[in-house]
Every structure is written in structure tokens, then in C-alpha cells.
Design goal:
The protein is mainly alpha-helical. Helices cover about 55% and strands about 0% of the residues. The protein is elongated. About 25% of the residues are buried. The model has no long low-confidence stretch (mean pLDDT about 90).
């Protein structure tokens, strides 16, 4: 057997073998009491934008595409989701101190307006997450209002 054929067979064997090494899925059953939308219900349009443009990566429940079961793509997605949840996890916002939650939500508003979020690699595959400028402003305004509300000192309401 020629060397190139042996190399191809070896690579094929490795590819098959890595299919059995799968990351744990990010699939919470339902929103918990610390979830952003449980604590701070949003208007339906904003809630829909959050669901399609943010929650797949920034929550404890991801809608996985079919190709997530193919390794090493599944590993890449898992790493991406873990990094996103480290930045802000909307399923756990209630567990953050109010000032930290407010700061993170303000950063979300900024990243949406400057087109940093959602990531272009995400919107390439998820057309429903491609936000128009009015949608970006709607989502950003909601994040900013909530951020300001959380930044208010306890007991003092405007």
C-alpha cells in the first residue's frame, strides 16, 4: 500500500474515532428564576430578538444545528458557547450583583449598536439573527434602560 493511501486511511480512522468524543450539550429544561426574561420581562418584540440573536450562546439553552454533532465542529461550538456564557449568561443574570448585571447589560447594548454582536459567523448560518438597525436600536435601548435601572442605588427609585 502506498504511503498517501496509508495516510488517508489513518486520517479517516482518526476522524471516525473523534466522533465518539462529544462535549456536553448546553440544554437547560426551561428558564430558571435567575433568567433575564423571568426577572425583567421584555416586550414581545425584544424577547423575540433576544431569543434568536442572543440566547443560543449567552444562556443555558442552545438550539443546536445539525452539524453540531460532527467533531471537531461540535468542540468549536462548545468552546464558543462557554466563552459567550463567561462574558454574560442571560440564564444567570439574577445571580450577578446588580451593579455587575447593569454593567454587563450596558456592554451588551454597546456591542449590539457597534455590530460586534451577534457575531457575523453566527448570522452567516442563522439568518433570523441578522438584526436591522431599528432592531439593534430597540434591543440596545432596552438593555440600556435595564442597565440604568439596575445601577440605581437600592431603595431609591427615580
Amino acid at each position: 500500500m502506498k504511503l498517501p493511501k496509508k495516510i488517508l486511511l489513518g486520517l479517516a480512522a482518526v476522524f471516525v474515532a473523534i466522533q465518539f468524543i462529544r462535549p456536553e450539550r448546553n440544554l437547560a429544561a426551561e428558564p430558571g428564576p435567575a433568567d433575564l426574561l423571568v426577572l425583567h420581562p421584555a416586550p414581545p418584540a425584544v424577547a423575540q430578538l433576544l431569543a434568536v440573536a442572543c440566547y443560543d450562546c449567552h444562556s443555558n439553552h442552545t438550539r443546536y444545528p445539525w452539524y453540531a454533532g460532527i467533531q471537531p465542529v461540535g468542540w468549536w461550538l462548545d468552546s464558543h458557547i462557554r466563552d459567550a456564557k463567561d462574558a454574560v449568561n442571560f440564564s444567570e443574570v439574577g445571580a450577578y450583583p446588580a451593579d455587575e448585571a447593569g454593567k454587563k447589560l450596558g456592554e451588551c447594548a454597546d456591542e449590539i449598536i457597534d455590530h460586534s454582536m451577534p457575531l457575523s459567523s453566527y448570522t452567516l448560518i442563522h439568518a433570523d439573527a441578522r438584526l436591522t438597525d431599528p432592531q439593534r436600536h430597540q434591543l440596545s435601548d432596552w438593555f440600556n434602560a435595564l442597565s440604568a435601572q439596575l445601577a440605581e442605588p437600592a431603595g431609591r427609585k427615580p
